[in-house]
Queue: 2 jobs
Job 1
Amino acid sequence: MDFDLNESQSLLQDSIRKTLTAKYGFENRKAYMASETGWSREMWAQYAELGLLGLPFAEEDGGFGGGPEETMLVAEQMGRHITLEPWFSTVVLGGGFLRHGADAALRQEMVEGVAAGETLLTFAQTERQSRYDLFDVQTTAKKDGSGWVITGRKGMVLHGDTADQFFVTARVSGASRDRGGIGVFVVPATADGVSVRGFRTVDGQRAAEVDFTGARATHVLGDPEGGLSLVDRVVDEAIAVLAAETIGAMDVVHAMTLDYMKTRQQFGRAIGSFQALQHKAADMLVAIEQSRSMAYFATMAGQGTDAGERRRNMHAVKAQIGRSQRLVGQQSIQLHGGIAMTMEYAAGHYFKRLTVNEAMFGDTDHHLRALADAGGLVQAA
Amino acid sequence: MELRFTGVELNFRQEVRDFLAAECPPETRAHLTSGKSPTKAMVVEWQKKLNARGWAAPEWPVEHGGPGWSPAQKYIFREELQMWPAPMPLGFNINMCGPVIIEFGTEEQKKRFLPRMRNLDDWWCQGFSEPGAGSDLAGLKTKAVLENGEWVINGQKTWTTLAQHADWIFVLARTDFTAKKQEGISFLLVDMKSPGITVRPIITIEGGHEVNEVFFDDVRVPADQLVGEVNKGWDCAKFLLGNERFGQARVGASRERIRRLKMIAKETLDGGRPLIEDPEFRRQVTEMEIELKALEMTVMRVIANETKRAGTGKPDPATSVLKIKGTEIQQGVSELLMKAAGPYAWVDGDPDAEGSNDWDVAPDWAFGLAGIYFNWRKQSIYGGSNEIQRNIMAKAFLGL
């Protein structure tokens, strides 16, 4: 067991930290959010320059061969600044499909553009009826000549309004909630029959509702009727990344809260001197440290090759961190008092990101139930 | 970053399991599996076996009979014992008083006490808390006065765990009555057979005799039984209390209890179906498992930091999580066990009796679960209450 960073990991962490500290203050973020795309193209170019966008891809595909630990470090820093750029959707989700599902030709076609910051990817999965069930897919894929055409509506597609390529789950056969019969298809944003309505999410990111109307896919990843295991794998890795991002955001909002408690005077003393408030701040620390432990566990378990065990572990991660981030987010507002209710103050923005992350790929209730139904983590005596 | 146990560590785990299978008496295992505390005879027999194997004092340096394990090995050892379950090495001897003598004691004291401690020839108990000094330990009033080369102790200790078994007691006593409260305290080793010592049982709410009051009435102690310097006993106390880094997490013990809980929840019916199939109950169990997994990883982090930061004396915020979360989980699981037993949890047996359920009035597995639930409420109180832990965190880690 070794939780320390090696030299290249430390360098990576330092370089992101320096860049984001210099260019991603709260005021910068507001300006990026107010820009036309809702995020910063300039920062995106910086990420490419730092090598963050090609980090997890194999070197032979044009990446830098980083592992899950490196991605965890990047995510944590992104979380510290609650960044707005499509890193998660492009590198983690789209990139996950490229790494685990694409053949060499497709990787050749796309990885270089992703690493250079020229190609944006995303995952089109949620449907009106699906809630958090990845297998609940009504969007259809029909064979048409040598290819596939996709028809259906996908919601909450992260950064769907700027993405160049969609990885779309679509049903080839079976009923709406069958685990089989689902494929993962690649559809370019420029294809005929793709219509995108973009909007802002509550945490300041962009997303889109995307209609596919007989849109022609350029690729199918693997077995067109056996894509769910690939989806599970990509999402499990993404949950580990979200965990690390969430730790970064929780650390910052907790520190912000402590600073405020030390400076805000009421009744002639700093409010941090009141034991009732101290104990709440201590409970936040307990929750954060337990979550940090779970984020390490997620980085380790997200790589598991036994899909059942990996899913159970990621349910545990999501549920534990979900509860913690809710506590930390809510208490950070409470301990600040009125100031944190204002749009001008950063704490509320962290709270909103934490709230969205809690529900991303399944909220706490969803994962608790799923883990309980799967028999939990400990075997009976 | 390497987030897994090494091959060496995994082999060690197997070695511990093999030893348990070969050496831990089945009666002891069955007794502990039922949830009871081990009897004195069980603890002594087991500790002597551990000592024969060289494993009686995992935390001690090799020159005093420690096994020279890495922090990870120490953790694995504890976890495997708890999961078996087998008795732990006696904490008073091995984790409390022994390390104080090693750190602060004279050569003479080390020679005289340590080998007998390790082999459990002497059972030690802890004389810290007093009726007026609980969370505020430094407020203690028991006093020791030097008379003709002997310390004469007068006062009262309370919550003295298993004093009824003890041959020796280590005592904090006030030796300077003018100094600030932390500065006039000394650490003394006292033979329980000394004239003037009276032990009176305290029966706790579940009916068990675990703790005692210990009265000192002109108890005379040779001067060479004071550890460290006169009036510097608070240093020993702080060292002792700070020593227990990951012991309070008891991850293995909680995992063992959850395994049993699931076994019981499969056997017991609710609405005509096994209780484990009830979504609400199952969810409550799952919540415990999730926090326990996080705690296990927190322990790993503390262990890894101990290796890295050995000797820097810099505390890790994760350590303060261990007591709070460890006890919350243990209490939570004890509550679920009692819940699982339903009405059959109500039989008021004698928790100190060797056998159990002789009258056959409830399923064997239900017997005593309520007693454990009631008894385990102590966990968030002792060893620095969980509220005191939060005060420590606010001061040490949050800067409040």
Note: The beta strands of chain B are 124-127, 143-147, 150-157, 168-174, 185-191, 197-203, 209-222, 226-227, 269-270, 273-274.
Job 2
Amino acid sequence: MAGPATDPRSAAVAGDPPRRRNTEAALLGFAVLITVVAQAIVDLTITGSLRPEMAGFSAWITALWVVAHLVIRRWAPYADPLLLPAVALLVGLGLTVIHRLDLAAEQVESDITREDAPVQLVWATLGVALFVAFLVFVRDHRTLSRYAYTLALAGLALLALPALLPASMSEVNGAKIWIRVAGFSIQPGEFAKICLIVFFAAYLVDKRDVLALASRRVAGIELPRGRDLGPVLVAWILSILVLVFERDLGSSLLLFGIFVVMLYVATERSSWLLIGVGLFAGGAFLAYQIFGHVRARVDTWLDPFAYQDGAGYQLVQSLFGLGTGGIFGAGLGGGRPDQVPVAKSDFIASAVGEELGLFGLVAVIIVYLILVERGLRTSLVVRDAFGKLLAAGLAFAVAWQVFVVLGGVTGLLPLTGLTTPFLAYGGSSLVANFVLVAVLVRISDAARRPATPHAAPPVRLGDAPTEVVTP
Amino acid sequence: MNAPLRKVAISVLVLFTLLILNVNYIQVVRSDDLRSRTSNTRVLAAQYDRERGAIVVEGTAVAESVPTDGRLKYLRQYPQGELYAAVTGYHSLIYNNSQLERVENDVLAGSDGRLALRRLADMFTGRDPAGGDVVLTLDPAVQEAAMAGLEGVTGAVVALDPDTGAILGMASTPSYDPTLLSSHDPAAIRAYWDELEAAERDPRLNRAIGDNYPPGSLFKVIVAAAALEDGLTPESVVPAPEEFPLPDSSRTIPNFGGSACSPSGEQSLIDALTISCNTAFAALGIELGEDRVREMAEAFGLDGEGFEIPLQVAPSGIGDIVDDAALAQTAIGQRDVRMTPLQAAMIAATVANDGVLMKPYLVDQVQAPDLTVIDSTEPEVWREPISEEVANQLTEMMTSVVAEGSGRAARIAGVQVAGKTGTAQVSDEVADHTWFMGFAPADDPQIAVAVFVANGGGTGGERSAPIARQVIQAYLDGQGG
């Protein structure tokens, strides 16, 4: 593994903090190796021979990460070296499991045999392209704050679009969260999420002083003034609307959670968390009372086996997969993950758990944890308030989404319709998450870059530009 | 903003820890539970992907997996149809497994610990993993004779090797064809299953071990054993009145057909057993007392507990005895006395084996796919309820039963057969159960057998003894005897 000593630049330039680009390259190599070996195992186990496309696939996936790596070297040289390799590992593993499930359909002579893995590879390529484009064209993440309101409008439009479209163009399996045009299905919510996080960050940085300071004490708790409750109420209502018009429990929960946490980080006031939890509890209670589909989700979650031939079928099959996989798993190609409905998208984690076992699934969770904690670390270190809040929002979005979706698949939480970032089949999710990581990489580059070239240890400026003079 | 950020980072750590803990719970703690649920089709489906081991009787597979071209690579078949169904059970896509297919599933499916090394070797050599074979103790001649004897009636036959406890025959009727439940066609499986469900008497029940029934006069052998252990001899004279008044009751126990056992109102123990005198044994039971009767019954295995052969055997027992009237009825095998046909065969085998009860077993060997033996059952002494002397006395008495008493229909030319008949009243509405248990040859026992016919009417001597004779004859012929 390449350390600082073998990096000529870091050795040559005194005071320049280590860039760790060789570490990144080595880790990427490792991720590629795992991906290719896993693909080979799948082919050998199921078909008994390596398919000819293997060479092309290996070259393609290697090229993707080489390009992404080189772009980081050139345009974001100080970027966090763990972000991209974590993504590469997750995407590679996702492609492998999807490919494995493609083969399963052939195995059981299903009428619907689809080659989804190559499609996913195309989406990954598009994702890397957007990743590269972002790093090349957006040199400073602060430019994003200039488009905050535009992005907010775009985000809302993307969010609302499926609700406005006729069901034939927007509804799949009961959730109205799609835009289906000319054979393509796009889940605009994934992009809306990023747009809204950028807007939240810019808005909260702008308004955090008033949100943080103007307060009154009620029963020993600092509560914000009534009129300052506006934004959180808007976010709450927005989430409820998503739930009502798109029947999308996941996005609703995701957006509200992200907003409350960003509000808390921006204001440093835990009273916002309390208000958030209170609103959530109220909303959850109302939703449970009013919406049959929410009630069904909760009931199935509490006792999936009571509904195992109906609403609980997916979850029960997922639990069977996980339980049958056990500690070491059935081995790639050795299980029956195809028995779980929509295993490629919503339930890909149960396929991982069945074939790679407890070890594999926990490893995946830890890779996510690394990705999230590196994002949060970026947020800690970066000097400007907007970048701080944006990085925190993006990192937490990944964490929250992973928690909600994996919790759902493993029976810890009620099922929601969210995708597993980077792992699951689905173009919108994959491409959007590449953009998300591009933003994180861009901010981490700013965070780790010395304040001035060749300067002594970078001075922590803290939040100086937005320091508030207390009255 | 850094202080809340750190708290968010820690919260994320906590959330992910919850995820990891929950995954541990699902994949480790609940793993076995999830795997073994009957609705988990993936385990069963996986079993169809490898060659399931055979169940073998004397070198012939009575349950085997044959390769197919279909989606499920192997089809389970039972070439002998109904003959071994009670023992093998079925291996069904829809209804899971039963009998040996269920209890020996780990071996047959190849997941048994004793096959672990071989699985590892298979993994490295690339050989298709296969299940192990289960070799049974059954004797085809005995099995066929038993099923032939039970033709047209509901009942069961169990035959044991008294020296070892090896089960030579185990038949139950009505039977069914397990192949039809083990096909790959769910609709056909369901149709056949519904047909079996609708049957008046469930063909899927192995009556030899799956249920217990009132044994009637078979139980007199246990009362006689207790009396002999207490110092009586076959020649001891016991009271044998025409009617036995039940203590503290206006009712009486009559003899079969209402006749007197002897003109004098008393007779020898051997004569009482030979003609199966109810009044003599009712009186003897009260004379011995509840404790003595219970003690002897439990020593023979009527202790209210089930056991495994490795199929699960229903418990046999004598129930609660509330007063002397109940004791008198218990002594003639009525009231709450219940016995599996296997238990009856065990009583006969104990007498045949000089008072030593061997643990009955059905699985002789477990073999790896290449037929190397990886486990075999060693005969095991289970209980010693009576002394050799008492066993010899009982043999003498039971020989008399067949030679000149109620069991004459079990006589075989040139072979001394010992036995005891039983006719148990069930209720006024349905015909009696009839029994016969015995062994042969009396001086050098090779086989002990019990025959049970449910609600067949008649007496044990008329209905059950002839079946026992056919089974014994078939076995002794096969042994060159």
Note: Chain B has a mean pLDDT of 89.
